[in-house]
Amino acid sequence: MRTLPANFSTGLANHYMMVWLVKLTGSAATYYWLSNKRGNTATSDVVLTESSVEKSYDSSLLARLIDGGQVSPIGEINSSIDISMGGNVASSSDVDLILLNQDRFDETLATYNLENRAVSIYVGFIPNGASPTLEVTNMLCIWTGVFDSHEENFGQIVCHLVDSRDARHKAIPQTVINSEDYPRAPAESLGQVLPILYGDFTESSAQAIYFEVFNLAPAICTDKIYNKYCIAGHITHTANYALYYADSLKCPAFIGSFDGVDAFTDPTLDTDDSGLSTVLLAAGQLIGSVFQMLSFAGSGNNITDFYKAIDGDATTYATINNSGSEQLECCLSSTPEETLFPVGISPLVPFRMFFIVDEVVSGDSFDCGMVDKDSVETNYDVPAGSGLLGVTITPPVSISAMDELEQYRYYFRDDLTHAPAAEDVKVYTIGLQLSFVLGGNLAKPKDRITRMKR
Amino acid sequence: MSRRTSGYRRTPAPDIKVDVDLPGKMYGIWKGRKYGGWGSLLTPAVATTELIEAPQHIIDSIFQDELSVTAVNLADLIVLETDRPTASWKFARSLTKAESSLEYLRSICEEAVLISARRGNGQERMVALCNVAAPSITLTSSDVALDGVTPLCEKTETPLENIRNEFYLNYKYSYYKDAYDKQIYCTASADNLTDNTRDNTDGYGATYQALCSGSQTRYNQTIKWEFDADWIRTDAVANLFIKIMMNWLCYRKPIFKATLLYTANSLSLELGDRILINHSLLPTGISNTRQFIVTNLTDGGMTRIGQIDAEFTMIPETI
Question: Minimal Cα–Cα distance from A51 to chain B, Å?
Fold first, then answer.
């Protein structure tokens, strides 16, 4: 609700003379048109003030009588909102204003340059007294908009005033990528806008990425040569990771992180470039990595629900209840339809094992490792601790090809000999982070064999 | 004597790099815009280091940061009357296409169930579609104009065509999949809500499934509501939104229309105000008890000086 000005309430309660005021902003001056200049017990014209500064006004323009009947000089003022289907934005009507065209005022009006300038309509009451003063701030502003047009005859001028809400709004985001400002932008970026980013595009769980749960905000390439990607045309709150997604990839690939964790390369966040939030990668090759859950898990004697370690569900887990010997084994699938990388993408040697486990028994310890095709085991220590752990380990093992990687079995086991507890270790997920090249020297042409002339 | 060859010649491949292009796009795991200096003008004030997430503050930001409504004018321009706890309503979206800010504003209002209106003096105003503790205005019969001795008012209901009683909300839009990652739903017999129980003050059901089934029985039809939410990304907000919409759309709501005289009450009314109506046309239990929201105001203009046509829609008891 709006609060009525005190003097307005007094006028309303005492049935003082109602008065309309139209305030218009011209190119050179502000104009005040009042519907009455006398009222109640006044013996002199009302004095109009705004913030206590006297304003000159014209009281001969706003029509009050037409064909002998009293009318308001102001047309219907409507505001409405359709809430039939929930929240919405209200709309306001345009308003007509009738002026008396005395002394060919239309010719004068044309010199005011009112088009597309602010108009406010007030209603109020002339105070009682012989020499009343009417203060604009004591009137009720019932409509604001802009002056649009007018049409006239020799008797009256009808002014069309339009709602200014549309004028307040404009197309956003406003910064369009063009070849002049962004000469190295790729063709597909031209005509696009620098995004505006609101809210949190990080998953609430820091380990969500291990389950291939992504909450990603898009970026647009602004510089193909220097690998610059703008994620927002303004300064942002936090930058965590940059990822790359191509239709041929199974899932978004990690390009880098801004804290040096979980990525093979570290891009920089450039906020000095006109306040943009930009991912700036090293020129040349892009090295990405994917978090790939393993595709097959096998069970030991004391493993429960082993498949829940690879089901992609962050709430389910396999349990190991052993005495230091049983282990949960997993491996990569070699089925063609589950190939990790699309054709033409070359996996690099670097990889990491990752897993999320919960040491139920305080002080327990466990380890992980891999076994090659000749059953040679390489073991890695896992940091000790209890509670939910998301850990990545980089094995110091040289693996030269994808098929070699696929021949390994990966294991995870409780490494402390003790009496089995109900659930010694919960294994929520286990997998590999594999790196690959997104562009660059990925293939060499074959030698050309030509038949020689005899 | 000529030298014999095998008849074939091997030309070594040039040692060149082959640029393998992998068409795709870059994405970020990120947090978006922070409050500007205008955050200090909010009540309570918000530091410039904080992330903007509350729907009404995103609207503020659009006005402040994009439409160049300067901070010094914030208090005059934006009126926050949302009654929406900022802690529980969190939106996130990347604006990647140039559209009218008014359309973005509309989409926020839809998903936050807010009304965005403009005051007579040009101030922007946002109001939540929900009950408030104590409406400050009570319209009475003395505010209603008479045609002779007959009050100029009528009572009707929201249209039957607006009823929905099976709900599906798609949210967490994936920019790289171009699809929504998640869906929450509630029908007469199944749901995946976090909690299916509801406040049954209105007697429409102690569960949201019962609310849907009761509506289907009452109106003899099952009509689906499916909504794609571009701002909602979390399960918690999706639950809040779909429950409000179920309470809003399952049952028809009374509408009160009246021609009002210029009175202190009627002239104080603004679009979006929540009021009580104490009038004999409304039944006991609604009159002077249930909250209505102002949805239409038309000042009589040239020929009906001192009269206002107004329309009010009753707010569901449970919302």
Answer: 16
Q: What are phi and psi of A278, to 5 degrees?
A: -125, 140
Mean pLDDT, 10 residues at a time, over chain B (319 residues)?
A: 53 44 79 87 84 90 83 50 66 96 95 88 81 82 93 95 97 94 97 95 95 98 98 95 96 96 93 94 94 92 79 88
Considering the domain architecture, whether residues B46 and B120 belong to the same structural domain is answered as yes
Q: CB-based contact (8 Å) between B159 and chain A?
A: yes
Residue B24 lies in a domain: no
Among the partner residues A71, A197, A252, nearest to B30 by beta-carbon distance:
A197
* Average pLDDT rounded to a whole number, residues A54-79: 79
Distance from CA of B45 to the nearest CA of A (A): 18
Residues B150 and B260 in one domain: yes
Does the residue B197 lie in any domain?
A: yes
Domain finish residue from B249, B269, B298: B249
Domain that holds residue B278: 138-158+253-314
Backbone φ, ψ for residue A30 (5° rounding): -105, 135
**B142 and B164 part of one domain:** no
Whole-angstrom distance, CA of residue A123 vs CA of residue A140: 5
Tokens of B17: 């790099």
Mind listing the pLDDT tens digit for each residue in A190-199?
999 999 999 9
Residues B104, B225 share a domain: no
B293 within domain boundaries: yes
Which residues in chain B are contacts of A119 at CB distance < 8 A?
Answer: none
What are the structural domains, with CATH classification, of chain A?
Answer: 6-80+92-168 (no CATH), 187-203+211-283 (no CATH), 291-437 (2.60.120.260)
How many structural domains comprise chain B?
3
List % helix, strand, coil for chain A (3-state, nearest 5).
10, 45, 50
Alpha helix ranges (H) inside B177-280: 208-219, 235-249, 264-268
Q: Say if residue B98 is in the same domain as residue B54.
A: yes
Selected residue of A89, A175, A210, A291 to mutate for chain B interface (largest B Cβ count, 10 A): A89
Which pLDDT score, from 0 to 100, does residue B195 have? 95
Same domain, residue pair B117 and B176: no
Model confidence, pTM: 0.84
Chain A contact set for B115 (CB, 8 A): 81, 83, 87-90
Last residue of a domain, one of B249, B281, B300: B249
Complex ipTM more than 0.85, yes or no: yes
pLDDT at A346: 64
**CATH assignment at residue B55:** 3.55.50
Classify residue B5: in a domain, yes or no.
Answer: no
Residue range A246-282, pLDDT digits in tens: 776 767 877 766 644 444 454 555 554 456 677 766 5
pLDDT in tens, A3-52: 898 889 999 999 888 888 999 989 899 999 998 888 778 889 999 999 99
Contact: B33, A235; criterion CB under 8 Å: yes
- Is B200 in the same domain as B218? yes
In this model, does residue A334 exceed pLDDT 70?
Answer: no
CB atoms within 10 A of CB B265: 17
Say which amino acid occupies A229: Y
Q: In B, which residues are within 8 Å of A86 by CB distance? A: 110, 113, 129, 244-245, 248-249
CB contact under 8 A, B13 and A239: no
List the single residue in B32, B92, B110 with the smallest CB-CB distance to A86: B110
Q: What is the pLDDT of residue A451?
A: 57
From the list A118, A21, A25, A23, the residue with the least C-alpha distance to A73 is A21
Q: What share of chain B is helix, strand, coil (3-state, %, to 5)?
A: 25, 35, 45
Is the Cβ of B33 closer than 8 Å to some Cβ of chain A?
yes
Residue B87, chain A, CB below 8 Å: the answer is no
Do both B273 and B142 map to the same domain? yes
Predicted confidence at residue B120, as pLDDT, reads 83
Contact B152, B298 (CB under 8 A): no
Q: Which of A9, A76, A83 has the CB atom closest to B300's CB atom?
A: A76
Of B19, B109, B269, the CB nearest to A1: B269
> Which of B20, B26, B268, B299 has the most A C-beta neighbours within 10 Å, making it the best mutation to test the interface with A?
B26
Q: Report residue B199 as tokens.
A: 């406040």
Residues of A in contact with B67 (CB under 8 A): 168-170, 172
Is residue A211 within 8 A of residue A429, CB to CB? The reply is: yes
Q: Which of A79, A89, A86 has the alpha carbon at shortest distance from B129?
A: A86
Q: Which pLDDT does position A38 carry in this prediction?
A: 84
